[in-house]
Structure formats: C-alpha cells, structure tokens
Amino acid sequence: MALKHVKPNEIVNLASGMEGSEEVSRVALVKTSQFTALRVSLKSGENIPAHQVPGYATVLCLRGSVEISLDDRKETMSEGDWLYLNQGQQHAGDCQEFRVR
C-alpha cells in the first residue's frame, strides 16, 4: 500500500504499514523542486545499487540493519541510526536484517 504525498505540517508515522509484512516498498513521501523524501523498505539480502542525488541526502534506519557503502568504505547502520550525505555523494545499501515487530 503506497502512502499519499505528505502535506506541509502533516505528521506521518514512517514505521506504520511495516508490521507483520516483509513487503518491499519504495514510496515518495514528498517531492518538490527543492526536496524529495522517500521511505524505502527492503527485505533481508535486497540492495539499492550505487547511485547519487544532486542535493544533500539523509538516511534513517527505522528497523533491522543495513550496510551502507560510502566512497571507499562501508558502515553498518542499526535501528535509530541517522546518516547525512554530501551533495552528489555516491552511496549504496545492502539490507542485512529486516526485523518485523
């Protein structure tokens, strides 16, 4: 089930809709000329290939863990970890564990 685009000042729960499901989803929450926010849910073993975006980017791990490839190194993100990326920085992600609550 896709989330609708979020309106200014609207509160949404990014973890809702993930309970009891290992469904893979990529949903654009907000898309404007200056800003895009996505919620991406991956199954264990699935990945996001190396890519870059023109602006700055952030990654928040809501559940499980993901290995993030950044330039010449790899870092593991766990639940609650947040990452800030430079403009145009190449990155990739490999889902290590998808945990359903």
TrEMBL record:
Pfam families: Cupin_2. Residues 39-92 form the Cupin type-2 domain. InterPro entries: Cupin_2, RmlC-like_jellyroll, RmlC_Cupin_sf. It comes from the Bacteria. This is Cupin domain-containing protein.
